[in-house]
Amino acid sequence: MLALPAYPAAMTSPSAPPLSSLPPPFRLDGGVAVVTGASSGLGARFTRVLHGAGATVVAAARRVDRLEALAASCGEGVVPVACDVTVEAELEALVATASGVADGRIDVLVNNAGIGEPMPAEDEPFEHFRRVVDVNLNATFRLTQLVAGAMLARRSGSIVNVASMLGLVASAPVRQASYCASKGAVVNLTRELACQWARKGVRVNAIAPGWFPSEMTAEMWTDESSMAFITRNCPMGRGGAEHELDGVLLFLASDASSYVTGQIIAVDGGWTAR
């Protein structure tokens, strides 16, 4: 797994928190959750947190060796599935595996898989733009469709899309048109699906993280000028740590947010409030 650098004390990310004492609305006992992009970074963290709250988690990504290591570290209740989210047959196989865990029941879907690479828009190859949109947007929609069928039939389910604060504002001076466009689309797709399914028992919300350590942003955390950029421009004066998404994830995934749908919750240290 990619080794990330040490962070300031305020940013250190502890192991998955002790969740056995969570109040009932936040627990997911007996539930089944699917997490994409689970082989590293935020996706691995999300898997641990949902598992810690009592869910059986079907963890999906292309790198099955990492998924198997994650499952082994969590113990029983994490099911690794190799899946490229841009391949229809692999999405169908993922849903079939998840559906087999509890007689067709899937309670939570976390659409976390995503890619992006900064480059000037005028130089970005169109195939790269297409690929980013395919992973970040099209796969999110298609997997949501596949999972939503059973949720709608049961009139129960929570879908959590991982968007980005860069789906809410421009990334300047970082230049990444495809990433911003795809995440902006995820933001409004979240709102639209939430409104379509609100009376059918299925909630759809999104988390919009700010600057968090991940494979995609790894170089930023070792670059002095990038760190200065975050420190200077973020109202809280730092980037986020993995554990600072735990609460919002559990809130949106669980019955604690039973009257919340169509919402985009920015967890960005105040970045989008400037």
Indicate the topology:
Elements (H helix, E strand, L loop, with lengths): L31 E5 L4 H12 L3 E6 L2 H11 L3 E5 L5 H12 L8 E4 L14 H29 L2 E6 L14 H21 L4 E8 L14 H10 L12 H8 L10 E4 L7
Parallel strand pairs: 1-2, 1-4, 2-3, 4-5, 5-6, 6-7
Helix pairs in contact: 1-7, 3-4, 4-5
Summarize the structure.
The protein has 274 residues and is of the alpha/beta class. The protein has a single domain, classed as Rossmann fold, CATH 3.40.50. Helix content is 38%, strand content 14%.
> How much beta, percentage-wise?
5-15%
Q: Tell me the Rg in angstroms.
A: 18 Å
Strand order of the largest sheet: 3-2-1-4-5-6-7
Specify the CATH class: Alpha Beta
Shape: globular
Mean pLDDT: 91
Q: Which range best describes the helical content: under 10%, 10-25%, 25-40%, 40-55%, 55-70% or over 70%?
A: 25-40%
The stretches of 5 or more residues where confidence is low (pLDDT under 50) are 1-14
Number of helices: 7
Q: What this model shows, in words?
A:
There is one protein chain. It contains seven helices and seven strands. It is α/β, with parallel strands linked by helices. It has one domain (23-266): NAD(P)-binding Rossmann-like Domain (Rossmann fold). Strands 3-2-1-4-5-6-7 form a seven-stranded parallel β-sheet, sandwiched between helices. β2, α2 (64-74) and β3 form a beta-alpha-beta unit. α3 packs parallel to α4 (126-154). It starts with 31 loop residues before the first strand and ends in a 7-residue tail after the last strand. 43% of the residues are buried. Residues 1-14 have low confidence and may be disordered.
